[in-house]
Design goal:
heterodimer; A: alpha/beta; 6-stranded mixed sheet; 4-stranded antiparallel sheet; 14 strands; B: mainly alpha; 75% helix
């Protein structure tokens, strides 16, 4: 089953604070979407509303064309894993899996057991006794093995060591290929996980800043590398996002599409031109107007 | 074969009941041994003239049922919603669970009176009651069952309401406490009127008004209505409860 996600004029307030404001968005099914935003930008709140964890203050969320909040047909099709997942901390890992088996319509117990073994999470240990990383691994297992048509991970990598994070990314991709569904990954580790995304959504201060496919996004800028003086001359007429220099070699990230003439000039000058790093673009787009970030 | 949502919910309810009944049964067995030991200990120094189980069963178990209710309102509710259940279906599950669990608890109380009757008979002690009840003798097992069932239902529902209210907002939890206590007190007054008035007896003017001893059907309907009212308040709290952000 493939389900698309649609929000219209979505607004969510916490008292006087507006966490999400007038956010309209359409996410196609069968894709892995990256959700990016700075701390406090509203990522977690947005995912909570998409999963029916919270009722919007205004506007609506539809999954597969139906409203989400407390909808008995839609809620079981949506799985949001927040950090370590929502589990009873005093229960054992095995009990947490058993509960998911009762509640998740597409639960794959064999896959869950296999994942936990690979992450090295003991079944008989209480959840609260697990390290932060192992708790995250349990959350990831609950999310992937739920096989929910809409699966969302909200910073589920917290505490995971690098090998475990790569295991997560590999499994996410492999399971997505085997069981295509709509996946949203909210993360700050943009460079590490960015290659998985087909589309990226960037929100800032509760507002939608950008929603585009990754390839188009990367074409919005470029990294120019070469001798410092030649690079400086080339980027003079472009908006510079980031600069790195090692000895006489300089690499400058510029924002804005490079036309054919510019690319030819760069090639003639012996400069290397590579797609923009997603993280650089993110930093640029979410910088405050004053530019002090 | 893929199970339907209803089948999964029914299986989960049975699983939760089995889990909690087993634990409550073991706790009750330990509690009964402790009460029996206390009775025998007292008997060494003086004669036994009243039911010890009556005192114990009326006090401690209802607090345990309240705690179970709090656990369901505070912890089970958000976890199940996070796993894709609707608030409505979790509220229904909690209601069904509490009805069945309260009945099981009441059965344990009945069993306690039966076992105590055997012990007292062997020892030649009278199993007299010292509190007021729907039943006038521990041998009226059907009334013992009904009284404790209703009592546990009210206390369990009150716990679930308090748990859900405190989960939703600490301030709301505080606001809910007075009406919950009031409803629990009214239910207890109906089940055990003579023990709720000042100095342990009904004042004469209440006797004159015919309110000293409530008719049995009234004593049963009042706590039932109390439980329903608490359940209704619970639904108002649960129906759009937001799940807390992690670390909140």
């Amino acid at each position: 089953m493939t389900l698309s996600i649609e929000t219209a004029n979505l607004t969510l307030r916490y008292g006087d604070t507006v966490a999400i404001r007038d956010l309209s968005l359409q996410l196609d099914g069968r894709k892995i979407h990256g959700l990016l935003g700075r701390n406090g930008s509203g990522k977690t709140t947005l995912l909570s509303v998409l999963a029916g964890f919270r009722k919007p203050s205004r506007g609506e969320v539809r999954i597969g064309g139906q409203p989400v909040f407390d909808n008995a047909e839609v809620m079981p099709q949506v799985c949001l894993i927040r950090e370590a997942g929502d589990v009873e901390m005093n229960e054992s890992v095995r009990e947490a899996l058993d509960l998911a088996g009762y509640l998740r319509p597409n639960w794959d117990a064999g896959y869950a057991a296999n994942l936990l073994e690979r992450f090295g999470v003991p079944l008989n240990q209480k959840v609260k006794a697990l390290s932060r990383g192992k708790q995250s691994a349990l959350g990831i297992t609950l999310g992937l093995a739920s096989r929910a048509p809409v699966t969302m991970f909200d910073e589920s990598y917290l505490g995971l060591d690098a090998p475990s994070r790569y295991l997560f990314y590999d499994e996410l991709l492999a399971d997505f290929m085997a069981h295509p569904r709509t996946i949203i990954v909210s993360t700050h580790l943009i460079e590490e996980v960015g290659s998985l995304f087909e589309e990226v959504v960037i929100i800032d201060e509760g507002k939608l800043l950008l929603h585009d496919d990754v390839e188009s996004l990367r074409e919005r800028g470029a990294a120019i590398t070469g001798p410092a003086d030649l690079v400086d001359r080339f980027v003079d007429s472009h908006r510079v996002l980031a600069t790195r220099q090692l000895g006489r070699t300089k690499s400058v990230t510029v924002y804005g599409e490079l036309d054919a003439t510019s690319l030819r000039d760069a090639s003639t000058a012996g400069l290397g031109v590579e797609p923009i790093a997603l993280q650089d673009l993110f930093v640029h787009l979410t910088a405050p107007k004053g530019g002090d970030r | 074969m893929t199970q339907t949502a209803q089948q999964r919910t029914a299986a989960l309810t049975k699983h939760l009941l089995a889990q909690h009944m087993l634990f409550a049964g073991l706790l009750c067995a330990g509690f009964a041994v402790a009460v029996a030991s206390l009775i025998v200990g007292v008997a060494i120094f003086r004669g036994i003239s009243v039911s010890g189980w009556e005192q114990a069963a009326t006090q401690v178990p209802r607090w345990y049922v309240l705690f179970i209710g709090v656990h369901f309102g505070y912890s089970v509710l958000p976890i199940h919603v996070a796993h894709g259940k609707t608030r409505r279906s979790v509220a229904q599950l909690i209601g069904k669970f509490l009805i069945a669990f309260s009945a099981f608890g009441a059965l344990l109380m009945v069993l306690g009176f039966v076992l105590e009757a055997g012990l007292y008979q062997l020892a030649g002690w009278p199993q007299a009651l010292s509190l007021s009840h729907l039943f006038t003798s521990p041998g009226e097992l059907h009334l013992v069952l009904i009284e404790y069932w209703l009592r546990f239902l009210v206390w369990g529902a009150a716990g679930a309401l308090l748990g859900a209210a405190f989960y939703r907002d600490g301030g709301l939890g505080g606001i809910v406490i007075p009406p919950v206590i009031l409803l629990m007190a009214v239910a207890e007054m109906a089940l055990s009127p003579a023990d709720w008035w000042p100095f342990g007896s009904v004042p004469p003017f209440m006797e004159d008004l015919g309110l000293g001893v409530l008719p049995l059907p009234v004593s049963m309907v009042v706590p039932l209505l109390g439980a329903l009212l608490i359940g209704g308040l619970g639904w108002l709290v649960i129906r759009d409860v937001p799940l807390r952000n992690k670390g909140a």
